[in-house]
Amino acid sequence: MGAGKEPDGSSRSDEEWERFLRESVAGAADAPKEPSARARDVGKRLGAEPGPGLEGWRSYTPARPQRRTGWHVVGLLASLVLLVVALAPGRIADLFAGDDPDSPPLAAETASPTQAPSAEAAQRPTMDEPFRGSPAARWTSGAAGITVPKAGEVGWMSAAEVERALARSRDFLVASGLDRGALRGERPEKAIALINPHQKDVQDFLKTAFRTPSEKNDPLLLFSRFQPSRTHLVGDVVKTRGRLTYREGERGALQVTADVTFVYPVTRAEAGGDDEIVRTIVRRELVLSWDDPDKVITEPGTFSLVSYKYDMTNGGCGAPTGYFTPPFGTDHQADETSPELDPYDRSAPVGRGEFSGDECGRATRS
């Protein structure tokens, strides 16, 4: 091949071309836009020589940012943002949506979260926006926030029977944690009717809990209740987030696990208050067994309780009263040495908020 030509017709030597190509690879400003056949030939030869990490012609190495390449940097950043949005749209939505009431609700929870929700901007709740300033602002309301999985055949139950049992399991959560009468302190008869009446220890618990509540027999372990003479719910909405899961249990039973967080915005009941709003946050984990009537004494449409536990913040401390007693104003508050609990962290196990005696957990946010 002949040497490269200059604009005036003179020829470049091989040494000049090699120098020119080395500068081009290093990012020289006068590199030609389309190399000649000779340049490609020399480039291949240079690539075969040992050197300071030179890459092949078609490989891409981002150049150091310069003034004239600003739009290229913007394009690269935009591409990275689009990639993140494609891989994790829910996380991006969480970052930008905040607690704007016009923001879309979070997608249903179908698996255990891996971390707590991000921090929200510090904003006080109001009577019109009682969930303002909390992750619950984007949660779904009521029963719709409890995810029910697709049913399949398990143990002694067909897929259709499993579907009915899952629906009734959610009915129990609604009757025990969302029913307006139960929340006003009434006896939760609809919920109790779904519990196996032949499960003696649970029936003894129910008889005692509402009459003489104690640390061992506290109705709040299963039911959400507020004393209407002291506390009023704000509005008609309770925010929820959680899910049901199921597997085969003992003796071929359908074992359903419910893990649900309820957020109750409340205010003082007495007139002339300052409209202070407190959010009582309760997370319950219940394990229910839908037993084979040929193997366990039960009644149709009822389940046996395998276990139940809960975490609660802003619901009161001290001796059990059978009601949540949210702290208003100068009411008892946890001191700086009390154990901390993030009530919105659903990635942590339930029960980490079980404190002894009069000890009261300190919510990191509400």
Topology diagram in text:
Elements: H1 14-25, H2 37-48, H3 70-87, H4 89-97, E1 140-141, E2 146-147, H5 159-177, H6 180-183, H7 189-192, H8 200-211, E3 231-233, E4 239-248, E5 254-268, E6 278-290, E7 304-313, E8 340-341, E9 362-363
Parallel strand pairs: 2-4, 8-9
Antiparallel strand pairs: 1-4, 3-5, 4-5, 5-6, 6-7
Short description:
The chain is an alpha+beta fold and 366 residues long.
Describe, in plain words, how this protein is organized in 3D.
This protein is of the alpha+beta class and about 375 residues long. The chain has two domains: about 60 residues, no CATH class; about 270 residues, no CATH class. Helices cover about 25% and strands about 15% of the residues. The protein is built from eight helices and nine strands. The strands form two sheets. Strands 1, 2, 3, 4, 5, 6 and 7 form a seven-stranded mixed β-sheet that branches. A two-stranded parallel ribbon has the order 8-9. Strand 4 and strand 5 form a beta hairpin. Helix 1 packs across helix 2 and helix 3 crosses helix 4. The protein is globular and about 90 Å long. The N terminus is likely disordered.
Key features of this structure:
366 residues, two-stranded parallel ribbon, 25% helix, disordered N terminus, seven-stranded mixed beta sheet, 2 domains, 9 strands, 8 helices, alpha+beta
DSSP strand content? 15-25%
Rg from C-alpha positions?
Answer: 32 Å
* pLDDT < 50 stretches: 1-9, 28-33, 45-74, 88-99
| H/E topology pattern | HHHHEEHHHHEEEEEEE
Please, how many domains?
A: 2
- Relative helix content: 10-25%
Classification by helices and strands = alpha+beta
Q: What is the overall pLDDT average? A: 79
- Which descriptor suits the 3D outline? globular
Put simply, the count of helices is 8
Number of strands: 9
Largest sheet properties: 7 strands, mixed
Span from first to last CA? 77 Å
